Amino acid sequence: MTLKTKKNQKATQIFKEYREQSRLDKWIWKTQTTLSDIEETIERLNSVDKILESLDYSCEQALNYFEYYTKRSFDRSQKHKDTDQVKLTTIFRAKGCEFEHVYLPYWEKGEFPYTNRLATGMNSEIEDERRLAYVALTRAKQSAKIFYSKNKDASEKVSRASQFIFETDHLYSQNLGLLLYGSDDEFNKGSELSEQYILKAGKSVVDFKPYISSDVKEFNYDWAIQQKVKTEQRVLLNELITTKTIKYLDKELKILTQKLQKEPNDNKLSNRLIMIAHAKYFKLVNN
């Protein structure tokens, strides 16, 4: 079907005809990768439709209108290019952009990732939003700060923090950041991924594990908090954070350190100590 235009038609009418006859919405549903991307793109089209309808301009008038405000916006941004400023944007629109500091509000359970109890295929939707979380964090050149609300009731045990916060392994990430951008030229080897980053930054790698002090002679909180939590243990870590109090965690730490003094080669006990320590640390910094 071809798009027929008429000289005297309003811009809003032309836009609606083009959108319908080109089947643009259907094409978007077929080509966009995630549900979030689809919703964002459709929302933009709806916004353009509403603007054209409210202006009630001809095509030429509408074109002049958009060109004027696009140029004005560009001139303003160039004028204030070297001044300190804050840019508000969505994760979608920030793709491909970089900022010195990034602030990410409202990373809360049930909101990001969004929980739609009526929807099917929840795993795929969470994966889509996990990729968005990655995009958001990697927009930062120097720092990225995540925010979420504290519990309204101090007696509430369940944390409001998004599961993505627990998945970031922020202690390890901070440590790796210091390795990459610090002044030292030689660093301890961690995972294969961290080694790739370090080598890419032009640093050399020493072949032993990172931030595990070789002179530690006993298992304790300080030692455990420096260890990396394994991927398969993060679900259990999240459960400890959301269901246990600091008093319980302190008691458990004491019992585990005592047991490890007698059985230092027991991996189950040392892994449990690491998770308990990380759970306590998270609750302390977010208290």
As a percent range, the share of strand residues is 5-15%
- Evaluate the radius of gyration: 26 Å
Largest sheet: 2 strands, parallel
Major sheet: order of its strands? Answer: 1-2
Q: Could you tell me the number of beta strands?
A: 4
Shape: elongated
User: Runs with pLDDT <50, length 5+?
Assistant: 206-217
Average pLDDT over all residues: 76
Strand and helix order: HHHHEHEHHEHEHHHH
Helix/strand class: mainly alpha
Helix content: 40-55%
Distance between the termini: 62 Å
- Assembly state of the chains shown: single chain
Put simply, the count of helices is 12
Q: What do you see in this structure?
A:
It is a single chain. This protein has helices at residues 11-21, 24-31, 35-55, 59-79, 122-137, 163-167, 170-181, 192-200, 221-225, 234-243, 246-262, 267-285; strands spanning 99-104, 140-146, 186-188, 204-206. The longest helix is centred in the N-terminal third of the chain and has 21 residues, at 35-55. The model is unreliable at 206-217 (pLDDT under 50). Helix 8 (192-200) links the parallel strand 3 (186-188) and strand 4. The chain has 287 residues and is mostly helical. It has twelve helices and four strands; from the N terminus they run H-H-H-H-E-H-E-H-H-E-H-E-H-H-H-H.
